[in-house]
Amino acid sequence: MPNKVSNKKNKADKGARKEPLELLVGPPKHAWPFSRGLLIRTLLHAGASRKEAASIARHVEQFLRDHELSPIRTEDLHALLVRVTKEQGSRPLARRVAQQTPFFQDIQVRSASGKLPFSRSVLARRLDDTGLDTKEAYAAARQVDLYLREKGLREVSAEELQDYAAEVLTRNYGEHFARTYRFILNHQGRVGVISTDSPQDVQPIPFSKGILMQSLLAAGAAPDAARTLARAVQRDLQGQEDRVVTRAQIRRMVQRRLRDEAGKHVSARYGLLRSIRHLPRPLLVLIGGVSGTGKSHLASEVAYRLGIPRIINTDSVREVMRAMVSPQLMPALHTSTFQAWRYLLPPGEERPEHPDRLSLEIGFREQARQVSVGLNAIARRLIHENADLVAEGVHLVPGFLDEQLTKNAIVVPVLLTIPDEDEHRARFARREKEASARPESRYLQNFQEIRGLQEYLIRMAERQGVPILDHLSLDEQAERTVDIVLAQLPAALRELSEEAAGEGDEEEMGFLEYASTLSDLAGGTPAAPAPAEAQKPQS
């Protein structure tokens, strides 16, 4: 009986030994899986051919399995690799393998806070801030890694690593990149931005390439050009000894580059856009138009280009007012703009399928008047907070907002239209297919009323001198709207002209000169009608 038990145990032991041994490298508590590829990389870096490196790596792996060496320390694995290389390859190759730091062994970076393994990814992110593109930054970090391993370094100080990285940058990309890299390290890679008149206790905010790109795109720069210029400005700022700069310094730097690389038009436009941030009164951009004209998309694009974070839709204002006022008190508020006429008919009177023009316009005006109460309240609150706004909606009827707003804010209205009736109808049909949750069929059923309201809005816009946008793509509409906004700024900026004139130099034109330059350059393009407020004589 004991013999049978012993035989079974021996068979079990033999079966267990046949299972593949998991090879691990490193200390027992923190070992990681063995990688033949890291051995091959080490051999290739020492000058072995790919075939020779693969053969030696296989022999090393087989030796580990045969002798059940797992886990194995990196030092012992390196010694084994050198020995097998000498046996299977050549003595000169084995000597080079012995002299370098293998890829399966970390290089420790020593600093005041302790030791950490060297990371190519961390170094690449730092190098990316010098102005190298991502591919170049990772290539440079890889060269630093190879440089350290060729020297056989197992441990370096943070200062030595910086010197090695600067040496690689100088050799491959020039002294400027090495100098910028050192400045980034000494100042945590950041540039602080403050206003010209910022108090001493105000903390700078980090410079943002994204915000600068936004301004450049709005100024008319192509996306690639804007990205390149923003990176160049960041690189120039990071190469300066002063790590805190004013917005005016950045503006002058950008304008110099724009004038040289993109022309006076883009430079002047950028200057005007920057001046929006310093207006004496808040800016209210009002985009009107009936359903299906693309107001929401245009409002988002204009707000992005002008750097305005607040967008409201008049339908949202109407929804809030509906929740507060009963249908019995204001029935016209509780329906669509193109159906408001139905609730103005006397009780018991038969409702026709479609209204006449007068009934349609009276119903619409009544609803717009009611919604304007909420819009005026929002506008007054924003004026009190000196906050800019982009508003869009069919209720933004030219002439319906409180005239007092134009005295306390810069109000720039535009009307978005679709002259082609077939195109307008096709948009509703497309939306109905793309978004089944929206009741687009209701719009198509009332298409005649929607077109009638557009005709009414066009008449009101022409009477009030409000610019009308049609026959344009979204990008062209946004470009045109920004131009219309910029055209209204000289009167408001005149309030700041004395202050602005004191800051200028040959590299920086004043606010009014920006507007004048833009006006001269746009002289060949028919100007859009100016709002009534802008037509008043300026003192």
UniProtKB/TrEMBL annotation:
InterPro entries according to UniProt: ATP-cone_dom, P-loop_NTPase
UniProt domain ATP-cone: residue ranges: 191-281
Entry keyword Mitochondrion: no
Superkingdom classification of source: Bacteria
Amino acid composition bias (Basic and acidic residues), ranges on this chain: 10-21
Region (Disordered): 1-21, 515-539
One MF annotation (Gene Ontology) recorded for this entry: kinase activity
Gene3D superfamilies for the chain: P-loop containing nucleotide triphosphate hydrolases (3.40.50.300)
Biased composition regions of type Low complexity, renumbered to the chain: 526-539
PANTHER family (UniProt xref): P-LOOP NTPASE DOMAIN-CONTAINING PROTEIN LPA1 HOMOLOG 1
Protein's recorded name: 2-phosphoglycerate kinase
Lineage: Bacteria, Thermotogati, Deinococcota, Deinococci, Deinococcales
